[in-house]
Structures are given as structure tokens and as C-alpha cells.
Amino acid sequence: MSEEDDIILAELDDEELVQQMFDDLYDGLKEEIEEGVNILIGRGWMPYCVLTEALVGGMTIVGADFRDGILFVPEVLLAANAMKGGMAILKPLLAETGAPQVGKMVIGTVKGDIHDIGKNLVSMMMEGAGFEVVDLGINNAVESYLEALEAEKPDILGMSALLTTTMPYMKVVIDTLVEQGIRDDYTVLVGGAPLNEEFGKAIGADAYCRDAAVAVETAKEYMSRKHNRMSA
């Protein structure tokens, strides 16, 4: 047994603890992340600081290594699951303190398509970046997207498809938004294995995101543009 195995989180100072949490997130250790979150809160950290510095900080490393092909989907799902454990503790505390959200996203796989690993990964990584995510699950008809947009008033609509046969349904959704005069109210991001940049442009999406890490970067970029426009 190496010394590594006997690290007692509570004995680490704040900086060491955050570094250790980066490692634990990377390794997908949910219980350790939950413990780390509780320790930092116990030391008087603001929930928002725990979220951004420890969890989002850690997931940023995971996202970069996923993008660069060092980590793969199973490892990222484990990391995201550990992140979720920490988020579950922070969510009620964040609500109490009225912490700023980066933005809000509604996401779902389109009608006829029951694939959700990619979508789940995007949801988790977006939450990991500080977005509020409303996940509609799989097989969503245009009506369920419209209802969610109406109810949730998100900044971003994300649609995913894994089949060439369900891809065109994304256009149905976007065309409906255009018909209703609400297309410009949302940033529409699309993704999924059979899609590409050209397809995204052709159907009128704002951007095609080839993976979860790109989706997060793109979403952040659009949010900062939106804030700049609002303050201009």
C-alpha cells in the first residue's frame, strides 16, 4: 500500500485539498469528492467557490484531456459522476446563496433516437462548467422542446442525434422555432456522431459541437457574447 492510499483529506490545507480533489475527480472517486466538498464548506468556503475552484477547476482538466484523446468516454463518465456527487451537496446551498449561473440549457435527443451517452456527457460537462441543465432525455418530438423552452426560458437549446435517419428532425425543430418567431431567443447547439459542421450550418443551428468538451467551450463563448451585447 502506497502513501497515496492513506491521504486524510481533513488534514490537508485548502490548497492541497483542492489539488487532491482535482486528482480524485480525474479518477472518478465520488465519495472522496463528496468528503472534500463537505470539508471545504465546513471551513467556511462559499458554495460558489467550492463549485468553481474545486469542481469546475477539476472538470476543466478532465475536459481538456478528453478533447486531446488522453481520457475516453468511460473515464469522463466516472469523473462526471463524482462531480454529480459534489453537486448534490452544493445545489441546495447554491440556491440559498443565490449564486450566479453561467447560463441555462435545455438538452435532449431528437425524436426517433434513443441514444443518450453523448447527450448525458454534454449535460454533465455543462453542469460541471456551472450551467443549469434541463435534460429532456431521449426521443423528443418538437412539442417537448417547445414546452421546455417555454417553461424553462433557457439561453441554449442542445439537440443530439446518433442516427443519420434522425438527424433531419433537428431541422424540423429549428424550422418550427423560426415559424414561431422565437429562433433568435436561443443559441441552438447540435451534436452527435453523424453530424458535421456543414450539416449544422445547413439546418440553421448556431454551432455544431463535435464532443462534450467543445460543447462547453462553445456554450461559454455564446454566453459571453450575450453578456457583452446586453452590457453594450
TrEMBL record:
Residues 8-102 form the B12-binding N-terminal domain. CDD domains: corrinoid_protein_B12-BD. SUPFAM superfamilies: Cobalamin (vitamin B12)-binding domain, Methionine synthase domain. PROSITE patterns: B12_BINDING, B12_BINDING_NTER. It comes from the Bacteria. GO terms for molecular function: cobalamin binding; metal ion binding; methionine synthase activity. InterPro entries: Cbl-bd_cap, Cobalamin-bd, Cobalamin-bd_sf, Met_Synthase/Corrinoid, Meth_synthase_dom. It holds the Pfam family B12-binding_2. Keywords: Cobalt, Metal-binding. GO terms for cellular component: cytosol. Residues 102-232 form the B12-binding domain. GO terms for biological process: homocysteine metabolic process; tetrahydrofolate metabolic process. Belongs to the methylamine corrinoid protein family. This is Cobalamin-binding protein. The lineage of its organism: Bacteria, Pseudomonadati, Pseudomonadota, Alphaproteobacteria, Rhodobacterales.
